[in-house]
Amino acid sequence: MQQDLNFVSFAQKISDLYGEKNSEKEFEEIYSYLCRNTSYLSRAILRDGDSKAFFIKSFSWLFAAAEKLEIDLEMAFRKKFPNVCPYCIASPCQCAETHKAPINNMPIQDVRMELFDQYNADINKYKTITLDQAISRTSAIYPANKSIWKAFGSFYHFSRLFEELGEVHEAFSSFKRT
């Protein structure tokens, strides 16, 4: 029986396989492969193609990009989603009712402190989390995603994913300019 992968062990597997080749690549090249394979994944899902192959390729390029930028994906995930939605500070997410505001109209300073406290509680309780646990956490915070997928198919989720990829590139471009 295979042990569940955590972020570190998956990142290490990708580094062991491709780290040397990827170290020679600029971030922009790695990012372009991430975008290309994610677009192929989108197309495969929409057309009932080989989505498994493109899923793992997309995920691998995501981890390669994180390694290039020295980002710990597990910590980044846990900071962004410390068992609550980062906008409404609730689980399950209440953003549909609050329009991405905290459920009790907390000042932004209190929101940041609450997220920090939630993150610290999580880190103290669990040293590491598996990729499966990350998926379960996301599903618990956003249970409506399943209904949205059934109602709108993959298009909605991929449009959101590509929006996030655009924001990553925008942030990297800003970083490079400084």
Main traits of this protein?
mainly alpha
What's the helix count? 9
Shape: globular
Determine the N-to-C terminus distance: 48 Å
Structural class: mainly alpha
Helix content: over 70%
User: What would you report as the Rg, rounded to the nearest angstrom?
Assistant: 17 Å
Main beta sheet: strand number and arrangement?
none
Low-confidence stretches: none
Portion in strands = under 5%
Give the SSE string: HHHHHHHHH
Tally the beta strands. 0
The average pLDDT is 89
List the helices and strands and how they pair.
Layout: H1 7-23, H2 27-46, H3 51-68, H4 73-80, H5 95-98, H6 108-125, H7 131-141, H8 144-152, H9 154-177
Structural features, described:
- It is a single chain.
- The chain is mainly alpha-helical and 178 residues long.
- 72% of the residues lie in helices and 0% in strands.
- The protein is built from 9 helices and no strands.
- It has helices at 7-23, 27-46, 51-68, 73-80, 95-98, 108-125, 131-141, 144-152, 154-177.
- Helix 8 (144-152) crosses helix 9.
- The longest helix is centred in the last third of the chain and has 24 residues, at 154-177.
- It is globular.
- The termini are far apart.
- The model has no long low-confidence stretch (mean pLDDT 89).
